[in-house]
Design brief:
Blueprint lengths: L2 E7 L1 H6 L7 E6 L4 E10 L2 E6 L4 E5 L3 E9 L3
Antiparallel strand pairs: 1-6, 2-3, 2-6, 3-4, 4-5
Length: 75
């Protein structure tokens, strides 16, 4: 099976983050650093994020420039 990516950037970031709580994804912040892990929760303008090494981070939503979700394709 192949993999596909869904990329969210710009205004789509804030609109779609809540759909991907506890889903593995890549989070790219404004200084171009990429984090791989899961969003634990969203509170107002802040998110709690946990990477695969179980380290937790707090980000403001306006710091996030893009996030990428991988999923398996049907074919």
């Amino acid at each position: 099976m192949g993999k596909r990516q869904i990329r969210f950037y710009g205004e789509n970031v804030a609109e779609n983050l809540a759909k991907y709580i506890n889903v593995e994804l890549n989070l790219i912040i404004d200084n171009e650093v990429t984090f791989h892990g899961k969003i634990l929760s969203i509170h107002q303008n802040n998110i709690k994020f946990q990477d695969n090494l179980l380290k937790k981070y707090n980000f403001e939503i306006n710091q996030i420039t893009e996030f990428i979700v991988d999923f398996r394709s049907i074919y």
